[in-house]
Amino acid sequence: QLQLVESGGGLVQPGESLTLSCVVTGFTLDYLHIGWFRRAPGKGREGLASINKSGVVTNYADSVNDRFTISRDNAKNTVYLQMNSLKPDDTAVYYCVALRHGYAALRTAVESQKDLTGDSGSWGQGTQVTVSS
Please, are residues 45 and 37 in contact by the beta-carbon 8 Å criterion? Predict the structure, then answer.
């Protein structure tokens, strides 16, 4: 059974960095498109970054484009989100999602900074990131 587990969240000060990890089990990462989303307090879930199964194609939401980097290590079945220059507005629960098909839908969610539509994705439980001085 496909499962995703996020880790790496925590409390950091503005301007600091964090790297989140998303470990995939029960399925080979090579065949999965992966996205990172977040849900801030009182807000809906929004797309941040995506990477296709080959790792060649990525896209980012405008709000994080110059600060966050998504990458994958298929040998470790792990996808990462490197987050630099963190701001208090980045405080949220961060989730990764895996899709076997439909990378276009994932890209659209990230470009529009909206939630992924439909129920074709497998989600992790989330990891809390808090940016505060």
Answer: yes
